[in-house]
Amino acid sequence: MVKSIPRPPNSFMLWSASKRKNVQAEHPGSTNADISRVLGKKWNKMTNEAKQPWQILAEEKKQIHSRKYPGYKYQPKSSKPKTSKPKTFKPKTFKPKTSKPKSSKPKSSKRKTSKPKNIFKDEFIDEFALFQFLITSNIY
Fold first, then answer.
1. What is the CATH number of the domain that holds 41?
2. Rounded Cα–Cα distance for residues 44 and 14 (Å)
3. What are the backbone dihedrals phi and psi of residue 12, each rounded to the nearest 5 degrees, phi first?
4. What is the pTM of this model?
């Protein structure tokens, strides 16, 4: 198997690699994601003067990388479109609504208009659930 050419490290990667063990010692039991967040916050708080040595080092690493891999150009792999699994058919059962006790709040004088409720929330109607609904509601 052919290994891909690694990207040259940027200034943050070089700095964070040098500080990671210290931050891990300060935050025992933290995950790598937590350590990376802490490092990112510290990096963002640093002044440009404090970052400059790391930026110079990153530029040197980039020069070495370009000599080692002269035709290198970063080309990120495109993410594959996610394929969805075929849905399995599950017959839906109709659950009649139970009546709720009426509240003692006075009704507002404004009349609310609403769309009729669709008891079958999916785009297609489950025939078995429709059949059960018709039988239980004495419409059929």
1. 1.10.30.10
2. 15
3. -65, -40
4. 0.54
Over residues 78-115, the pLDDT tens digits come to 777 767 666 676 666 766 666 666 666 666 556 666 65
Identify whether 131 is part of a domain. Answer: no
CA distance 136 to 138: 6
Encode burial over 76-87: b for 16+ CB neighbours within 10 A, e otherwise. Answer: eeeeeeeeeeee
* Contact between residue 47 and residue 7 where contact means Cβ atoms under 8 Å apart: no
What number of other Cβ atoms are within 10 A of residue 94's Cβ?
17
The answer to whether position 17 is within a domain reads: yes
State the total domains in the chain: 1
> Is residue 22, in this structure, part of any structural domain at all?
yes
CB 55 within 8 A of CB 11: yes
Q: What is the pLDDT of residues 22-40, one digit of tens each?
A: 999 999 999 999 999 999 9
Question: Domain containing 27: what range?
Answer: 11-68
Let me know: does 43 contact 36? Beta carbons within 8 Å. no
With respect to residue 125, please indicate whether it lies within any of the assigned structural domains. Answer: no
For residue 125, what are its two tokens?
Answer: 């109607």
SS (H, E, C) 71-105: CCCCCCCCCCCCCCCCCCCCCCCCCCCCCCCCCCC
